[in-house]
Trichome birefringence-like N-terminal domain-containing protein
Amino acid sequence: MADAAKHPSINSRPPVSQLKTLHSLPETRRSSVLFYGFVFSFVAFALFSALTPSSNSSSLWFTSIFTSFSTGNSSSSSALSNFSSSVMIKKPSNGTNAGLVEKLTNCDLFDGEWVRDDSYPLYKPGSCSLIDEKFNCFANGRPDDAYCKLKWKPRGCSLPRLNGSHMLELLTGKRLVFVGDSLNRNMWESLVCILRNSAKNQSNVYEGYGRHRFRTRASYSFVFKDYDCTIEFFASPFLVQEWETQFQNGSKKETLRLDMIEKSADEYKSADILIFNTGHWWTHEKTSKGKDYYQEGSNVYIELNVLEAFRRALTTWGRWVDANVNPMKTLVLFRGYSVSHFNGGQWNSGGQCDQETEPIKNKTYLSSYPLKMKVLERVLKGMKTPVAYMNISRMTDYRKDGHPSIYRKQNLSEEKRKPPSRSQDCSHWCLPGVPDAWNELLYAELLRKQK
């Protein structure tokens, strides 16, 4: 390029001083012929140099012009291609995707039925080492597998199969956080397994603090390094703060502060996607009776109805969301109540479900809509922040077959699995299993939000 100054550009104009000199020449025929002859010869030589392979500087300079233009155009084309792909992921533009989003937007995803689909589950039983032992029914010896071959089918549309690779693209650079009780941990573990199975390099998927068990800590964070993404869980069974009140005589009492958001809230308020839940701990004896347990300010209620306490706690949560979460940045979801199926008692009084191998098929055997979820709906309507309500109560009510029941621990004989003293789990869900369908609903919700 050092020689470029020696050769005028094809499209360059002579300097103004040269134009003045040319106009001062005698306008004779001879001068004109010589002038135009010189110009023609120069142009011909220049074109010949450009188009003829040569090692001289003139040829290299012309070659560098075309190469630079071609390279620049190619880069622009590549960038445009990448941009278009990105736009299609974020805002589907082709007919099929746009049509799918439109159908999902106008569909009640939670009104449907379970249908057999042998292409399920989304990941092979026993293939995900991250599943908590108590949810890993396959590894714990459950002999049947029909419970993980059912797909949720809405009546008004077709629910797309969760494409883990695409979901990872949607979540690239984002932070997705589950907050709630062990049923949300159930859903969190399901999603981590689905996405890990779809990751380009599974060795770049790991728990941020190096943990391998996921029951005893207050929070966990799975890092998807290649996608700059984290999938996290914060344990908070009530969404408000568990408390210890000390009285003047020195005695202490455990209470539930209905007027205070749970203590980890500041750690996740800026996440890109928040999925909350609460419900099951409100059915336990202490909360359901409501005696000397619920507190607001310094007042511990002698007795407070559990539904009223639930409403006050959710109102505190809703006010916190409105005051602290930016709806322009963060998508907020609330997953509804997951129905339990204890037969002959409750979780601590001999309730069982180990004989259940098929879902309920007759609607008349389904339970009524949970009263606590009616309270939730009223709270959500009073909030400024949009919250997507994942109303999974009915879809879980069908699934009496999907619980761990007696298959909660590895390497147990049948005799040890089922003694009268061993409680069954008819609240949580086997993995693979029902929570995978919740995550397909989450995937559909993300697709709806791309419109």
Observations:
- The chain has one domain: 113-449.
